[in-house]
């Protein structure tokens, strides 16, 4: 008997997972490689950073998800390159895995526009470690402020800057403002956390540029009502331990979070194919790499045009749709039948929360804001979580936060806190 | 009006917390200093290390606990010494806090009997970071074994050694064996996790020396039924990256956990008073330091004799009883009334779990084992957790694990996993 067709999937994010799911029963042996042991529900990562959810509520061991799929082998390893001529994926440590078909779904990380040195002072939010780093820095800043004798230093400790006003930046700013202004007052004896500043900086002309103008304006008003200072058309020209520089001015801050740009994984480099400015591999309409019909690139690391000329956005639904599309192509190739035409992105709507009880929802024709939108947002996210246990746990955490106004994951871990306040 | 009496409490563990609670309404201003922002429910820490519970389910921000106590100021800072002559506590970073009365409740850490270099390869279990380190190493070992081509290295990756068979060692061994033999099989394609070895090494003649001999024998049988190899009267003479050396023999292992000894905090050194062999400050019957009537030492860092001549054990109930005792002494001093005589320890019983559904309970006259003991153990621990939210969350996690046989916190975080397998 011939060995079955071997598909290697690199990356267990939304795209990779959907692909593997949809290939159940197909005549193919699958190897799924990820450098993490878990699939991460990134749309809720900001809630881990802001002490609402625990890490284990939004992440699941990949190998557990495919426990009952004997056709799937999961490998925890980092891919360092691809040899398309030898049809081989190279693993760090010197190993290699050969493939018949390869799907790269390796995602993106944050980009500092040529200023990678900013990362140390202004972490982005892509991994569980990023989330706990931001949580630790934010909580530690309040603790250090309580001990600080110098007024200027205290003020810098109580100033939180978020760079970039996409959904992640807006969601972080809203919750940090709530923590400072509504949750922490009363717990400190020397500082008044209600005086903490939360500053959201956006280079563009409005926040949440992906939403309609009226929803974006509503979100800005809602953020301001929570006490967030919103600075649009403002470009950060420097970041360091003292704070951020914006043109002529400066904001002294000890806690900066970067939510401004993304940089694709090096999939295009590995394959030696052209990439766009953000490093995304420019793929064909069927999501294959140009000249490499057995190699697909999907999700945040692929650059694909929509019919309206815009790029398919780097969001979870787009990655899932691409995973499902490639599964159909692979099935058609192996089982016969008609392969689908080029990939077409269906916009399933944009959602973002502003603080604990408000959200905006943009379905194109239908637009909602406020409490109702928050409930739709919440139900949608619980629906998309994996497994009964997580749905219960997250629903319980949210209900608790909603009713008690308390966050449950306010822990400083990983040692920085042991470096005592200056 | 005179400044109220200033009490400084160092350490927000079981003893320090009980003390502060019991002083509610007393004519005293309290400053509680801890180098962590959270109180940790250490008796369940092994469940975080073994992927059953999330970190936030067993830890609570100290300042949140005393939010409504205007008389309590919480400081996140590390104490580096005490100046008893100046009645001052020294903080790292150069700060200082003066006191009228001082209580040191600074706990203990693990001891390597003069081999501190073993810590890097054989972490102990005292902090949340320790727990996530052990969790990461254990999960990563299985992942690396799945990728390993060499049989001997694969075997070393699938061998887990726990040194020390007190309650923590026994509880870790039981759950690690269950994970390897009952939870993970079916998720890996190249290794058979049922063949993983879990070895529990104890220098003494029996495991769980704090329990009666029949319960200790029962626990050993129960562990063996779970597939744990129990080696008593076996002394570890060396630990390194390859494994442990036991006398003439050696066990190749990539995952070693240290549950063998404790070393008290340097409270005795700070005060310049005698300490016992484990570094515990030898205190008077009323828990004051000899020659320093305004300084108390309580909990795991104090050495106090019971009436039977044995030392009060380093367990949570003892620390709580000492906190409550010192609160009564301080009240008597400030409010008048009779100060209690010397501290007397009431043994409230010993509990330990063996795996997921069995436990032993030793109340002196009443001894229980098996499933009923497990339920008593579970209810007791849920009762002692802090807050409705945690009780629900932990009860839900346990119920889920009990019914589904699945653990919810199987995450590899903090980067070691990014160093790919060799």
Biggest sheet, spatial arrangement of strands of chain A:
5-2-1-9-21-20
Give a count of the beta strands of chain A, DSSP E runs of length 2 or more: 25
CATH architecture of the largest domain in chain A: 3-Layer(bba) Sandwich
Which pair has the most extensive contact?
A-B, 60 and 60 residues
Oligomeric description of these chains: homodimer
Instruction: Give the class-level CATH name of the largest domain in chain A.
Output: Alpha Beta
**In one word, what is the shape of chain A?**
globular
pLDDT averaged over residues of chain A = 92
In CATH terms, what is the fold-level topology of the largest domain in chain A?
A: FAD/NAD(P)-binding domain
**How large is the share of residues in beta strands of chain A?**
15-25%
Terminal Cα span of chain A: 69 Å
The assigned structural class of chain A equals alpha/beta
For the biggest sheet of chain A, the summary is: 6 strands, mixed
Radius of gyration based on Cα positions of chain A: 22 Å
Low-confidence sequence ranges of chain A? 415-422
Compute the number of structural domains of chain A.
2
Distinct helical segment count of chain A = 11
The proportion of residues forming helix of chain A, as a percent range, comes to: 25-40%
């Amino acid at each position: 008997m011939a060995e079955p067709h071997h598909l290697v999937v690199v990356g267990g994010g939304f795209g990779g997972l959907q692909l593997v799911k949809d290939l159940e029963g197909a005549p193919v042996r699958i190897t799924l490689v990820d450098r993490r042991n878990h699939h991460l529900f990134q749309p809720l990562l900001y809630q881990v950073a802001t002490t609402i959810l625990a890490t284990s509520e939004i992440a699941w061991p990949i190998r557990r998800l495919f426990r009952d799929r004997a056709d799937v082998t999961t490998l925890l390893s980092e891919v360092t390159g691809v040899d398309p001529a030898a049809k081989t994926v190279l693993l760090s440590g010197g190993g290699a895995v050969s493939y018949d078909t390869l799907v790269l779904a390796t995602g993106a990380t944050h980009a500092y526009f040529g200023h990678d040195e900013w990362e140390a002072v202004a972490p982005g939010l892509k991994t569980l470690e990023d989330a706990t780093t931001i949580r630790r820095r934010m909580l530690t800043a309040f603790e250090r402020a309580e001990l600080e004798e110098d007024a200027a230093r205290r003020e810098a400790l109580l100033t939180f800057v978020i760079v970039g006003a996409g959904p992640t930046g807006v969601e972080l700013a809203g919750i940090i403002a709530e923590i400072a202004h509504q949750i922490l007052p009363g717990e400190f004896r020397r500082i008044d956390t209600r005086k903490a500043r939360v500053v959201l900086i956006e280079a563009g002309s409005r926040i949440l540029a992906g939403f309609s103008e009226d929803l974006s304006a509503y979100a800005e008003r809602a953020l301001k009502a929570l006490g967030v200072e919103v600075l649009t058309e403002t470009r950060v020209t420097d970041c360091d331990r003292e704070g951020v520089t914006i043109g002529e001015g400066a904001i002294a801050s000890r806690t900066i979070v970067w939510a401004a740009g993304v940089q694709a994984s090096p999939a295009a480099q590995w394959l030696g194919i052209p990439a766009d400015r953000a490093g995304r591999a420019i793929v064909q309409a069927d999501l294959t790499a140009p000249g490499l019909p057995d190699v697909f690139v999907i999700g945040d690391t692929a650059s694909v045009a929509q019919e309206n000329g815009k790029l398919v956005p780097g969001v979870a639904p787009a990655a899932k749709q691409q995973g499902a599309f490639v599964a159909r192509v692979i099935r058609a190739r192996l089982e016969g039948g008609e392969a689908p035409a080029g990939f077409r992105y269906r916009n399933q709507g944009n959602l973002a929360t502003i603080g604990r009880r408000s959200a905006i929802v943009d379905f194109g024709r239908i637009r909602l804001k406020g409490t109702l939108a928050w409930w739709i947002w919440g139900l949608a996210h619980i629906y998309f979580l994996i497994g009964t246990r997580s749905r219960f746990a997250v629903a319980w955490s949210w209900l608790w936060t909603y009713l008690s106004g308390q966050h449950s994951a306010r822990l400083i871990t990983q040692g920085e806190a042991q470096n005592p306040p200056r």
